[in-house]
Amino acid sequence: MGAGKSTIGRLLSQELALAFHDSDREIEARAGTNIPWIFDVEGEDGFRQREEAAIDELSRLDNIVLATGGGAVLRESNRRHLQSRGTVVYLHTSIDQQLERTAKDRNRPLLQTENPRAVLEALIAERDPLYRSCCDLLIKTDRRHPRGVVNDIVRFLKRQQPLKNTD
Q1: Is 4 annotated as a binding residue?
Q2: Annotated binding residue at 32?
Q3: How many helices (H) does the chain have, and how many strands (E)?
């Protein structure tokens, strides 16, 4: 959360002249409502089922940049689809930076608590090893301009030609 996935994904797609997709926005469009409502009505498991279906479908598309929600790595099938169908970039950011970037965002159900720092600490403890296990590139985004992050990703991709797409 707050690592810049959507912002950097949009910029990267423009730089590479590829279509941009955000799995969270796709889930909202399909559900006809926002993610907090899905969490309230269906719980996290209901949301994760929707997320899994969206990632399976979106990761089959060619020539796209896909931004996923921070919890997408929790399901092994998501990690497998992302790894086998594309190049996975882990945008890593500190908890302090996450708190700063998400402080006023009410569209993050997991952070609607009295102690968002504790939530973020628990999330990163669970998710960081999963992110690291499935990424092709890890980039730290703290205090960095999104354009600099995009430039680093583009340099990496140029060294990786051709991009993975085995499905």
Answers
A1: yes
A2: no
A3: 7, 4
